[in-house]
Amino acid sequence: MLAINHYIKNKYVQFFVGCFIVIGILHSLFNELVEKIPSFSPLLFPMLTIFLLVFHLFIASFMAMKYWCDRMRLYLMAFSFAFAGSALLMVGTLSSYPAWLDLYQFDVVNYNDAMIYFTFRHLLMAVLFIVSAVLFALRNRSLSRTFHVAVISGMFIFTALILILAWLYSSNSPLLTLDLVDNETRQYMLLWKKPTNITLIALWVISLATLMSITRVRNLFWIGGNFLCICYIATLAMLFLGGHAEDLSWYRARLFEAVATLLIIFVLLYDVFNLYRESHLKYQQSYQNSIRDPLTRLYNRSYFYDTLNHALRTVKPTEPVSVIVSDLDRFKRINDCYGHLQGDKVLQFVAQLLMDSVRPQDVAARIGGEEFVLLLTHTPPEAARQVAERIRLKLSSFDKASTDGQLPEPITISMGVFTATSKISAEECVGCADKAMYEAKETGRNRVVVFG
C-alpha cells in the first residue's frame, strides 16, 4: 500500500494522469460536438487557425518581454522564436485558403501547402523546445553578453531558414516540391502518412523527454510546456489516424491544438498574477518597513507627522483631534541596571500595550528613545484623558511576574494630552502635548496632564 501511495504521489505520474484526463475531456467534448453538428462549416478551419495565430503571437510577445525583464532567462527566447515562427507559418497556412472570406469559393483550397506549413511549423517548434530545455539547464551559469547575442542570432537564423524552406516547398517555387496531400482527392500521401508524421511524433517525444528530464516538471510554467508537447503528440497521432484533409481528424487536431494553447495562455496569465501578487506583497512589506519603527513596529516619526498634518486640515470643534505624548519614567535606569536588551524588551512591551489600547483608525508612534505619541481622531479632551489614564493605570499594574520577565520591575509613564479644535500646525499641536507631559514629569511622574 505504501508503495502504491508513493507511486501515486510521484509528480511525473500525476502529470501524465492529469494530461490523460484533460485530453480525454477534450476528446469527449469534441465527440459530443460532432454528434450535434455532423458537418462543419468550411470557415471553421481558417477561423481556428486565426485564433491559434493570435494565441501564439501573444505567447511569443510574453516570453520576449519576460526575457527583457530578466536576462537570466535566455531559454524564454527559444520559446519566443518558436511561437513567433509558428504564427508566421500559420499566415502561410491561411494563404492556402486564398478565398476563405468568400463563402462560395472553398474549392480553391491548397491542402498540400497547408500541410507543408503545418509540417515545418512542428519541426521549428519541437527543435526550439529542445533548445529551450538545454538553455534552462545553463540558467545558473554566468553567460556573457556575446553568448546571449550568438544564441539569439542562431535561433533567429534557424527560424528564418525554416520560414524560407516552408515558403519554397509550397507552391511559391517550382524548384522544390513536397507532396503531402493530393489536392484533387484530398487524401494524405504516403510521404505524410509514413516518414513525415512519424518523424514529427518522434521529434516531439524527444522534446518532451528532454524537457521533463531537465526541468523535472518543477512548476506550473514547465507543466504547461510539457503538456503542450503531449498535446502536439496527440495532435499528430490524430492526423496519422485520419485519411484525408477534410475528415474529422483534421478539425479535431486543430481544435484540440487551439484549446491546448489557450490552456497555456491561462498558465502564463496565472504566472503573471503570481508575479503581481509577490511584487505587491514585497511592496507592502517595503512600505510598512518605511513607515514603522524597526524595534517596536509602531509607526515612525515621519508617518505620524504626515498623518497628523492630514488630520489637522479638516479639524473643527465638532471633529477634534487629540494628541497624547508619553514618556517612560526613569527609563535610563532600566538600561543602566538591566542592559539595553532588557530595555528593548520594555519598549516592545509598552508599544504593544499602546497598540492594543487605541482604535484601528488611531495612530500609535514612537518619536524618540522612550517617547511615544498617540493620535486620536474625533476625540474630545475628556475622552483623550480617559484613554491616557487607562493606559497609565494598566502599565503601572504590571510587574516582572505578570509579564514573564519582559518588565524587570514595575514601570510607570507620564502623559500629556492636547486637543486641537481649530487650525494649528502639527509642530504646535505636539509641542502643547509635550509641555503637558513635562508638567506631569515635574509634578511627580506617573500621571496624566491635559494642556490648558
From TrEMBL:
**Alphabetical list of SUPFAM superfamilies matching this protein:** Nucleotide cyclase
Entries under SMART domains matching the protein: GGDEF
Q: Which EC number(s) are documented for this chain?
A: 2.7.7.65
GGDEF domain: residues covered: 319-452
- InterPro entries in UniProt: Diguanylate_Cyclase, GGDEF_dom, MASE4, Nucleotide_cyclase, Rev_trsase/Diguanyl_cyclase
Which Pfam families does the UniProt record give?
GGDEF, MASE4
The protein's annotated pathway: Purine metabolism; 3',5'-cyclic di-GMP biosynthesis
User: Which reaction(s) are listed as its catalytic activity?
Assistant: 2 GTP = 3',3'-c-di-GMP + 2 diphosphate
Please give the start and end residues of each transmembrane region.
12-30, 42-62, 74-94, 114-137, 149-169, 196-214, 221-243, 255-276
Q: What class of enzyme is it?
A: transferase
Asked if Metal-binding is a keyword of the record, the answer is: no
Reported cofactor(s):
Mg(2+)
Q: What is this protein called?
A: diguanylate cyclase
Species assigned in the record: Leclercia barmai
| Lineage of source species | Bacteria, Pseudomonadati, Pseudomonadota, Gammaproteobacteria, Enterobacterales
